[in-house]
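Holo model, FE2/S2 (inorganic) cluster. Inputs:
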Amino acid sequence: MTDSRPLISRRTTFKGMGALGAALVLAACSGGDDAPSAPEAESGDVLASTSEVPVGGGVILADRGIVITQPTEGEFAAFSAVCTHQRATLSDVDADGIHCPRHGSVFDATDGSVVNGPASSGLPEVAITVEDGNILAA
Ligand code: FES
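Output:
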């Protein structure tokens, strides 16, 4: 998997579908077995363009098990998108943090630490680099 554009498009489709999209994501991840057990990216893989990651938010690459955030303009971070509580795929990112849909854990978008449980450990960081407007796995 070297081209992430279909993944971004799929996520965008889910966001556009609102509650129905969220329900589909939940159904797809209800067992936690569809999410990768670890982030799936090789060094140099283009994960997203910087313009696809909103300031104060982020994008979730569910198929790769990676969430990319941009807490402040030009500052990007990436973490595992698998909740450390019971392995649900995280659902969205906003100014409050990165949210897990299953039991409501929230993780800090800057460092992946737990903001609200029940998760007790933070999200593992995924190394990234930013080059020419793209976010790549490091
Ligand atoms: S699986 Fe994420 S809060 Fe329980």
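Confidence is low (pLDDT under 50) at residues 1-33. The first helix runs from residue 5 to 16.
Archived with the compound record.
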